[in-house]
UniProtKB/TrEMBL annotation:
Single GO term (MF): serine-type endopeptidase activity
Gene Ontology CC terms, in alphabetical order: extracellular region
Organism: Grus americana
Gene: Prss55
Name listed for the protein in its UniProt record: Granzyme M
Localization terms from the record: Secreted
């Protein structure tokens, strides 16, 4: 996140940090006790031997619960050039025990973008567009607004199919590369139930 706000403890309890050699490489989402949803472009074809999934906290400086992956499933039609079907699943080797800091996200059952409200992305990405500024070790958040495919095509004519577009809410600042794989979450009808409507891919 560039110039985002710090998330509060337990505010995004489904958010995980996917790490290699102890360094955050991508975000992900807990969708059950054993499955993590993330972006395919975060990986080569196989799981790196040093990969871990860190759950249950917002501050990566603190000792947090770590899980080893059992296997990685990339979308069979993922295209690294066009970034189409940029989605992947990680199967963990041991289940996550749920708590106030570890809760799976709901998956959506509504596909009309006008239904969704109060959308957010969060991540441990770069805090400044300047390369020299290191990634934040504390989870940051920024409010987003879904936009129609037509609006998106006006800005990105080469947009592929099966992509959802979102822009910053007024007054917010943008997301950065190392937030890849994290969730775009929204609620609806002023309920405070949260659903994952997208995976951060590029932008």
């Amino acid at each position: 996140i560039t110039a985002g706000r710090y998330a509060k403890a337990g505010e995004f309890p489904w958010h995980v940090s996917i790490q290699s050699n102890g360094k955050h490489i991508c975000g992900g989402t807990m969708i059950s006790a054993l499955w993590i949803l993330t972006a395919a472009h975060c990986f080569a074809e196989e799981v790196p031997p040093d990969l871990t999934v860190v759950v249950g906290g917002i501050d990566l400086n603190l000792p947090l619960e770590e899980h080893k992956p059992d296997s990685l499933i990339l979308h069979e039609n993922f295209d690294r050039m066009s970034m189409q079907h940029d989605i992947a699943l990680i199967l963990l080797s041991s289940p996550i025990e749920f708590s106030n800091e570890k809760i799976p996200i709901c998956l959506p059952f509504i596909y009309d973008i006008n239904t969704w409200q109060h959308c957010w992305v969060a991540g441990w990405g770069t805090r400044s567009a300047a390369v020299a500024v290191p990634a934040s070790r504390v989870l940051q958040k920024v409010r987003m607004k879904l936009i129609s495919r037509e609006q998106c095509l006006e800005r990105i004519p080469q947009l592929v199919e099966n992509v959802l577009c979102a822009e910053l809410e007024k007054g917010e600042r943008g997301i950065c590369q190392v937030d890849s794989g994290g969730p775009l979450v929204c609620s609806y009808w002023n309920t405070m139930k949260w659903f994952q409507v997208g995976v951060v891919s590029w932008g």
